[in-house]
Amino acid sequence: MVRGEAYSFGDIIGISCANGFELIGSRTLTCLSTGQWDAVIPYCQRIKCPELMAPKNGFKSTNSSAYNTTVVFSCSEGYHVVGYHQRYCRSDGVWTGDEVDCQLVRCPALLPIAQLVETNWDNSYGAVIEFKCPRGYQLRGAPAIQCQGKWKVIPLVHLLPLKTAVSMLIA
Question: Where in the chain is the domain with CATH 2.10.70.10?
Fold first, then answer.
C-alpha cells in the first residue's frame, strides 16, 4: 500500500507485501508532475494453495486453502491414511507433502491349522472367517473371528477326534 503524504515529482517508491501475500500490479510507482502515480496502485492478495480434495473413503479438516492453513486428513472406519496425514499451505502457494490416500485395513494371514477348514476367506476390515471341522472332528472354541485391523478374539482351537470328545463327555 502507498503510505505517506509528501511525495514529489520524480519520487519512486517500492511496493512489497507481507509474507503470505502476493503483489498484484507494479513493484514501483513514480510520482508524475501532475501529482498522480504513473500506474494503477497495486494491492496485496492473500496467497492460496490449490484446493485439496478429501481422499476417497476419507475426510479433510477444512476447506480453506489460504497461506498458513494446515489440513488434517483422516479415513473412514476400516481404512487407514497412506501418505502425509497433515499438509500445510506454504507462502509460495504450494502444499507440503504428497497426496493422501485411504486404504482398506487388512489383517495378517492366518497360519493353517491341521484339519481345520476356513470358509469365506477374506482378511479385509470387518470380514468374518468361519471355521468348520471335517467329519469326525469337533471344534472347541469360537467358530468365527472378525478382522478389525487385527483378528479380534482369535479362538483357542482344539480339534478332537469325535471318539475322544464322546469319551470325554461320558467320563
Answer: 58-104
The tens-digit pLDDT sequence of the chain (171 residues) is 455 568 889 999 999 999 888 999 999 999 999 989 999 999 999 999 999 999 999 999 999 999 999 999 999 999 999 988 999 999 899 999 999 999 999 988 877 666 666 666 788 898 888 877 777 777 777 778 888 888 776 555 566 665 544 434 333
CATH class of 117-170: mainly beta
What is the DSSP secondary structure assignment for residue 89, as one 8-state letter?
A: B
Selection from 44, 13, 15 nearest residue 31 by Cα: 13
Cβ(136)–Cβ(161) below 8 Å? yes
Return the closest-CA partner of residue 37 out of 21, 25, 24: 25
CA–CA dist 130, 159 (Å, integer): 15
